[in-house]
Write a structure and sequence with these properties.
The complex is a heterodimer of chains A (about 475) and B (about 80). Chain A is α/β, with parallel strands linked by helices. Chain A contains ten helices and 25 strands. Chain A has helices at about 25-40, 55-65, 80-90, 155-165, 185-195, 210-220, 230-235, 260-270, 395-405, 425-440, and strands at about 15-20, 25, 45-50, 70-75, 95, 110-115, 115-120, 135, 150, 200, 225, 250, 275-280, 290, 305, 310-315, 330-335, 340-345, 360-370, 375-380, 385, 390, 410-415, 415-420, 445-450. In chain A, the strands form six sheets. Chain A has an eight-stranded mixed sheet. In chain A, strands 11-12-13-14-15 form a five-stranded mixed sheet. In chain A, strand 24, helix 10 and strand 25 (about 445-450) form a beta-alpha-beta unit. In chain A, helix 1 crosses helix 2 and helix 4 packs across helix 5. Chain A is globular, with a radius of gyration of 22 Å. Chain A starts with 13 loop residues before the first strand and ends in a 22-residue tail after the last strand. The model of chain A has no long low-confidence stretch (mean pLDDT about 95). With about 80 residues, chain B is an all-alpha fold. Chain B has helices at about 5-15, 35-50, 55-60, 65-70. The chains are: A alpha/beta (about 475), B mainly alpha (about 80). The interface of A and B includes residues 207, 213, 232 and 444 of A.
């Protein structure tokens, strides 16, 4: 009956441990999950408002294992976006932290466990679900659109198994959460470690908080993941001088780390006998597509590595011809069983089947070297990664123009988004609007006032003319 | 600028708050004071006072008031009042 994890195989082992001393074994997770899904009954759609807490993971594993399709959302999601998602998908149930229950007046409580509550929404509309649809998740940085990635059971199982294989995971691992579980990279850590019976350490505290490191030491964490910005913070925290005897492995994904930081962390890992694993992925490929084997971390600085077990990479030029020469740039295309079914923009799309057939055009421009190691060199589409979150610049422009009816253009580099406009009075309101919509730290956003937005004769914005303001 | 003005300025610029919000302000009280904002705050303070803070002090820096105590330590010798 269990569709992904055989939780009973690890019966008495600790599955989860939280910072407040809470814990659960795999056996309890199985038993409590069965009770929860009994309150639901049959296969249907349910939103999970995620936190890094036992209740949240309990709901997630129970739903996935028993055919309830969860939509993974952050519990701090903007109310406007949540309303749009509720309207677009009409889930039958919500699984959310008990302390947020009052936000949903008029919904009936169906079950409660581990500081989470199950609410029946009462929506009459029921969208049919494709038989292999397992879960829905946002692409890493949604700016308010209800677009979700459709992942299948096979996608999740296959990717988790591949990750467990290349990271050589076993039951002695104790990863500590540094990322939300509604973010595919964070979720993949739970998915892969539950296949091998490891203990996941749950906290919503961040690297900059004392409580995080206290929990880390007390619970003897063996690994964590981080986006490029995490590594900047760790460097700032003088991480290399910290005494963390239990730590074995650190992984990096969610954007390209600078070669300087790559080198520093690779050198630290080599000197201290740790593993530093640079990885590459996307929500559209469930989570992971590539990884740099830790023993190559120093030698292949700047590379995101090779395909994960079971996957392949290929590069194509603009004419669609496969590139065979090293150091030639082309679009990276990945094939593997973890390539997801496709997107959904509303409940009507949930019946759709596999629209990608195991092949994903990543939109990333890449090269490989003579040993077959891949390097990301640019992007086909206009988007940035801000603190590991994908931000689509065209979508930002559309949102701003719709809200303010002004001339503007957004551009920038990872972790730094620039908003160019001509109306000085709108600079701050526009910037605040973008911060509000993206829910990302204001430090990433800068408004720049220009006399005019550079355009060609056809009226198309010349983004290349804007690079001088931030390069 | 006095030390207090420099100290307040670091909070105001990084977290986009007003001076009257500062007393009692704690980590995560405002959205901008997350881990990213915290790193920005520490960088601003290190620059303003020409100091280099220790890991433990960076992660102990949980509020506007605690920050003043940390900066007053012998290692930094910055009196904010």
């Amino acid at each position: 009956m269990n569709r992904i994890w055989d939780l009973t195989a690890f019966e008495d082992r600790t599955a989860l441990l939280d910072e407040n001393g809470g814990s659960t074994t795999y056996g309890q997770l199985q038993a409590e999950g069965a009770e929860l899904v009994k309150a639901i009954g049959t296969r249907c759609l349910a939103f999970i408002l995620c936190r890094n807490s036992i209740g949240s993971v309990l709901g997630y594993t129970a739903f996935l294992n028993h055919g309830i399709v969860p939509v993974m959302l952050n519990s701090h999601l903007d109310n406007g976006l949540l309303s749009r998602l509720l309207e677009a998908y009409a889930p039958e149930y919500l699984w959310l932290p008990t302390d947020q229950e009052t936000q949903f007046q008029g919904m009936e409580k169906a079950y409660e466990a581990r500081e989470y509550v199950l609410l029946r929404t009462g929506y009459e509309k029921r969208y049919p679900l494709y038989e292999d649809l397992a879960l829905l998740i946002t692409t890493s940085g949604s700016t308010g659109s209800p677009k979700l990635v459709r992942q299948s059971y096979e996608n999740i199982f296959d990717n988790a198994q591949s990750i467990a294989e290349y990271l050589r995971l076993d039951e002695t691992e104790r990863p500590i959460t540094t990322l939300p579980m509604n973010y595919v990279y964070g979720l993949s850590i739970i998915n892969s470690h539950f296949l091998v019976g490891a203990t996941v350490l749950l906290t919503d505290k961040g690297l900059m908080q004392k409580e995080f490191w206290q929990f880390f030491r007390k619970a003897e964490a063996t690994s964590f993941g981080g986006v490029p910005y995490t590594y900047e913070m760790l460097f700032k925290l003088r991480f290399f001088r910290m005494d963390l005897p239990s730590l074995r492995t650190v992984t990096q994904a969610g954007g390209k780390i600078t070669p300087e930081l790559h080198e520093k962390f690779a050198a630290w890992a080599a000197e201290t006998g740790r593993n530093f694993v640079v990885m590459y992925g996307a929500a559209e490929a469930t989570s992971r597509m590539g990884y740099l084997p830790p023993e190559k971390a120093v030698e292949k600085k700047g590379s995101m590595g090779i395909p994960i077990p079971g996957g392949t990479f290929a590069l194509y030029d603009t004419d669609g011809n496969r590139i065979t020469e090293p150091y030639t740039t082309g679009e990276l295309v990945y094939t593997g069983k973890n390539v997801t079914l496709g997107y959904a923009e509303s409940g009507e799309d949930l019946i759709r089947g596999d629209e990608r057939n195991g092949r994903l055009e990543t939109g990333d421009m890449a090269q490989f070297d003579e040993d077959g190691y891949y390097y990301i060199v640019g992007r086909k589409k206009r988007f940035l990664k801000i603190y590991g979150n994908r931000v689509n610049l065209d979508e930002i422009d559309r949102m701003i123009k719709a809200e303010f009816q002004i001339e503007m253009a957004s551009a920038g580099k990872d972790d730094h988004l620039y908003l160019f406009m001509t109306d000085r009075k709108k600079a701050e309101p526009v910037r605040e609007f973008v911060i509000e919509k993206t829910k990302l730290n204001p430090a990433a956003f800068k408004a720049v006032v220009l006399d005019e937005i550079p355009k060609n004769d056809a009226g198309k914005t010349l983004y290349s003319e804007l690079t001088k303001y931030y390069a | 600028m006095t030390n207090l003005e420099k100290y307040n300025q670091a909070f105001i610029e990084n977290f986009e708050v007003t001076e009257d919000q500062l007393p009692g302000l704690k980590y995560q009280d405002v959205e901008a004071w997350d881990s990213v904002g915290h790193m920005g705050l520490i960088a601003s303070l290190e620059e303003a006072f020409d100091i280099m803070m220790d890991t433990d002090d960076i992660i102990d820096f949980g509020s506007y008031e605690i920050g003043k105590q940390i900066l007053a330590k012998d290692a930094y010798g910055v009196t904010v009042e």
